[in-house]
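Milestone 3.1: sequence recovery, worked example.
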């Protein structure tokens, strides 16, 4: 179980708290024992940015357990002074409690507290566009990125404002619990599932999922659960409770691909992992990834990958 400790300042942006908290809550519901949420603050009671009073908050813990997530949300800047006593107390706590054993997750202006704590020295980071210059002044050695959903640098992950905190929470959940689980979380929250931030490309397990069509999601869930199964067009159509022709139309409209292309991308992801993480020959790789032969695997590989398998395996050996 990972503890997620929300470190709350006065004038906190509630959605910076509620969005990630709901994502972690649903993930824990799907995978019991995965996350435990705690809400702490330098103050036992505070007023949020929208005026809602938050009470019975824990004191900031002296020690964070290994593997914990320390989540620092943003503030309504017009109502908050970074030189105030609560702000200094929060930054000083971060400096004491957060180390390489802990993931520091900053949403919106939460990055400013991390900067004042000395935790962004020499790191890549981001924040809400309103606070970018302020963050650069707070930590001149940091590489502050504009126009990014989130940025990951070692154990420190920073995000832009509001809904970017949900994107970042989904990213961490996907890393912890896998793509199938995070897909369920995103659909329960009725949000797009996207892997953004500092990653240069979308994971194949997340591609073509940014839609809300239930039948297409059922088919995709079935393929994700058993990507190597013998999925014929008829079998996929039965999952969707429709005809093969209509399923193809639904995939084109909502997923932007064909059912076959979706299945091939997942199998190719499995093959890529086997190429980089094992010494299996291509026939064995093809067999384990659900392809009929090495020839079919290479044909699909050429369509989606820039480098042949041998080059990828050579790089992974170094």
């Amino acid at each position: 179980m990972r503890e997620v400790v929300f470190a709350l300042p006065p004038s906190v942006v509630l959605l910076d708290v509620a969005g990630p908290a709901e994502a972690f809550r649903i993930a824990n519901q799907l995978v019991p024992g995965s996350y435990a949420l705690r809400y702490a603050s330098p103050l036992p009671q505070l007023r949020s940015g929208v005026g809602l009073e938050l009470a019975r908050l824990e004191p900031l813990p002296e020690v964070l357990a290994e593997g914990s997530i320390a989540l620092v949300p943003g503030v309504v800047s017009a109502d908050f002074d970074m030189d105030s006593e609560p702000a200094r107390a929060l930054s000083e706590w971060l400096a004491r409690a957060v180390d390489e054993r802990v993931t520091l997750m900053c949403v919106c202006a939460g990055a400013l507290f991390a900067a004042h704590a000395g935790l962004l020295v020499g790191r890549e980071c981001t924040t809400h566009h309103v606070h970018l210059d302020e963050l650069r002044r707070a930590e001149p050695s940091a590489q502050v990125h504009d126009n990014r959903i989130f940025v990951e640098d070692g154990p420190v992950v920073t995000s832009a404002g509001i809904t970017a905190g949900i994107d970042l929470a989904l990213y961490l959940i996907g890393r912890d619990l896998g793509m199938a689980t995070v897909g369920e979380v995103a659909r329960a929250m009725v949000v797009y599932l996207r892997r953004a931030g500092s990653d240069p490309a979308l994971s194949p397990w997340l591609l073509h999922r940014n839609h809300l069509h239930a039948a297409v999601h059922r088919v995709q869930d079935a393929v994700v659960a058993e990507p190597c199964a013998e999925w014929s067009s008829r079998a996929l159509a039965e999952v969707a409770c429709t005809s093969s022709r209509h399923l193809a139309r639904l995939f084109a409209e909502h997923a932007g691909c064909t059912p076959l292309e979706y299945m091939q991308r997942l199998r190719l992801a499995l093959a890529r992992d086997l190429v980089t993480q094992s010494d299996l020959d291509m026939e064995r790789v093809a067999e384990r990834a659900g392809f009929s032969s090495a020839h079919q695997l290479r044909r699909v590989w050429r369509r989606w990958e820039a480098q042949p398998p041998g080059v990828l395996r050579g790089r992974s050996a170094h």
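The two ends are 34 Å apart (CA to CA). Confidence is low (pLDDT under 50) at residues 198-202.
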